[in-house]
Amino acid sequence: MNRRTWSARLLVCMCVPAFALGAFAPAHATVEGPDALIKRVATEVLDTVKADPSMQAGDMQKVMALVDTKIMPNVNFERMTASAVGRFWRQATPEQQKQLQTEFKTLLVRTYSGALSQVKDQSLSFRPLRAAPTDTEVVVRSEVRGRGDPVQLDYRLEKADSGWKIYDLNVMGVWLVETYRTQFSQEITANGIDGLIASLAKRNRANNAKAG
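RESULT FIELD:
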């Protein structure tokens, strides 16, 4: 796997991405800072994978469970899905929006899990956060370091009532939402919103079949 492909698959396994609320919320009243949140979650996930031989050996069910319970609760998945669907989101019915979120989350969990199963000796380096105390949207910048050149990995977060949530990722200058928005727009233009839902569902079924 070349560096760009590995990076693209890894970008979300350190975060989100992509997607519910609360599993990492602090027990105390103080809101955890966005940079502290990203550093803690990413470190915990990497340490878990590195310490579990079955995950490194390719136990996808175990890796997917880790992604779903440790990463997804720190992502505003509704905003990420709406942003990826773009201008078509408002045209979708509530039921279509629900289906889009379900299929998109399934796709991303599988993508993150595939990347996590390849983690060996990578580490994270974080840049100082440039944000004012009153900011409600920030970018946390980091690098993934291991063999080869460092890989840029940035996170866009928003401040919600329950704390900071991720809603987009950037790897090597490419933002995740923008990439999917282009793909989704083409599918919706050709086959409508139901066509996109069907396409995502088909891709997820194919992924499950390969895993089985």
